[in-house]
Amino acid sequence: GDDVIIPSVSTQRDYEAGLGKSVPSVAATLAIDTANPRFGLRSAKVTTPGGATFEGISSSTSTADEVVADVSPSTTYTLSVYLRAPIGATLRLRATERAANNAFVTNGTLPNITVATDEWTRYAFSWATQPTTEFLRDFRVMTVLSAQAIDFWVDGWQLDVGSTAGPYDGGDSGDTLTI
């Protein structure tokens, strides 16, 4: 990417200091895991019971005053995250866009990920913010298409300006799968 956007201090770029303001989406449960870190000593473990779609992790509590990252309208960004999930799992990344007055703009949902390896993989997607978008409320990883009772791990979120994911600035980036 051209520039790395440094998310607000409330955003967990990694999970070395715990879950921070990360919260479960729908009925998922979250835990800090020391057995499966991608970077450092910890990652977030997400357990989805399989009762619904859109179970997963959100980077923030999505309260009215929450700002994950200030962004510019009509600008291309790339969100990337490292995931470890079971082969065949179907997940989706999402960034919630908000206007200056905190009005909802769009969910910025991009293509589904069908997991092809159970090893840590960096996934990235690029999109252009809407003309009225001023900030991002949260980043999410969640199940889609069907209810899935799975465990998956999350680490190393990054938001870049431009259409490519730059090297992860928290450590070794390895390969990136652009979706």
Name a few traits of the molecule.
seven-stranded antiparallel sheet, 179 residues, 45% strand, 14 strands
Structure in words:
This protein is an all-beta fold. The chain has no helices and 14 strands. It has strands spanning 3-5, 23-25, 29-33, 43-49, 56-58, 69-70, 76-84, 90-98, 104-106, 112-114, 121-128, 135-143, 149-161, 176-178. The protein is globular, with a radius of gyration of 15 Å. Mean pLDDT is 84; it is low at 7-12.
Shape annotation: globular
Largest sheet: 7 strands, mixed
The average pLDDT score comes to 84
Low-confidence stretches: 7-12
- The portion of residues forming beta strands comes to 35-45%
Q: What is the element string, with H for helices and E for strands?
A: EEEEEEEEEEEEEE
Gyration radius from CA atoms, angstroms:
15 Å
> End-to-end distance, in Å?
15 Å
Number of strands: 14
Class from helix and strand fractions: mainly beta
Helix content: under 10%
List the helices and strands and how they pair.
Blueprint: E1 3-5, E2 23-25, E3 29-33, E4 43-49, E5 56-58, E6 69-70, E7 76-84, E8 90-98, E9 104-106, E10 112-114, E11 121-128, E12 135-143, E13 149-161, E14 176-178
Parallel strand pairs: 11-14
Antiparallel strand pairs: 1-13, 2-5, 3-4, 4-13, 5-12, 6-12, 7-11, 7-13, 8-9, 8-10, 8-12
